[in-house]
Design goal:
Layout lengths: L22 E5 L2 E6 L9 E6 L7 H12 L3 E5 L9 H5 L5 H6 L3 H18 L4 E7 L3 H6 L8 E5 L6 H5 L5 E8 L5 H14 L3 E10 L2 H4 L5 H21 L1
Parallel strand pairs: 3-4, 3-5, 5-6, 6-7, 7-8
Antiparallel strand pairs: 1-2, 2-4
Length: 245
């Protein structure tokens, strides 16, 4: 694998203060947090945010709103159909991780991603669709980097990505990696570099020192180094999409 299965680092982190600018909508059968630029016209570009195991929560909403402020329709779907994990339940020991993971396989999550792509391309007529994936969601960015699906991808500290999935991308991919990451390890990162070189697709890998898995969405913003890395990871995604869409 180019990244390992989720571990305890996927379930820990800090909540960020945030007043949501978007709203909860229903797209097909799925609950979605949606944020749009303040404009009367439909933008020609959109980003699908494929989040971590906490799905729609303040930190991921903050990222969606930031993309909207930069001119994107931003969709943050509930990948888990109401079965997302809450930080409080995890900390209280109320989550059976193995059982939870068994309920959220590729067969379960893929229809959600496909519904978002179809809504943007068919219903809204958006020309350019990007995706940003964090931890759990990174796998699905990689899987849908195909012609007519996702046009450009960004992933931060991904989990569950296989070598075959990475080797089959047909569109550009940018990766933010943490120095301390038991899932996207230095070995996995170097293996990913070799696979991406062979793919012949444009790619970028940025390594942030002094931070851990989850920094780009759950980092402790009271720590200047972590705040810097989180903000730079977002800018990495933004500039990458501007360049590749």
């Amino acid at each position: 694998m180019t990244s390992e299965s989720p571990a305890s680092c996927c379930f820990t982190g800090s909540l960020h203060e945030h007043k949501a600018q978007g709203d909860i909508q229903q797209i097909g059968n799925f609950r979605v947090y949606a944020a749009s630029p303040k404009s009367d016209t439909i933008p020609r570009k959109a980003v699908i945010l494929l989040g971590d195991i906490f799905s729609i929560f303040p930190n991921s909403q903050l990222l969606a709103d930031e993309f909207a402020r930069n001119g994107y329709i931003a969709l943050l779907p509930d990948l888990f159909n109401g079965d997302q994990i809450s930080p409080q339940d995890y900390e209280a020991g109320k989550v059976d991780i193995k059982s939870w993971m068994s309920r959220h396989t590729v067969a379960d999550v893929s229809p959600v991603v496909e519904a978002m792509i179809n809504h943007l391309r068919t219903t809204l007529g958006v020309e350019n669709v990007a995706a940003a994936g964090y931890c759990f969601g990174g796998k699905y960015v990689v899987r849908y980097l195909k012609e007519g699906q996702i046009d450009s991808g960004f992933i931060a500290h991904p989990s569950f990505v296989t070598e075959d999935e990475l080797g089959e991308i047909q569109k550009p991919l940018s990766i933010s990696a943490a120095e301390h990451d038991p899932i996207f390890t230095s070995k996995n990162r170097h293996a990913s570099e070799e696979i991406l070189i062979q793919s012949k697709q444009p790619f970028q890998i940025n390594l942030f020192s002094g931070v851990s898995h989850g920094f780009a969405i759950r980092g402790d913003l009271n720590k200047p180094l972590v705040q810097f890395a989180k903000e730079q990871a977002f800018m990495q995604a933004l500039v990458w999409f501007q360049h590749t869409l």
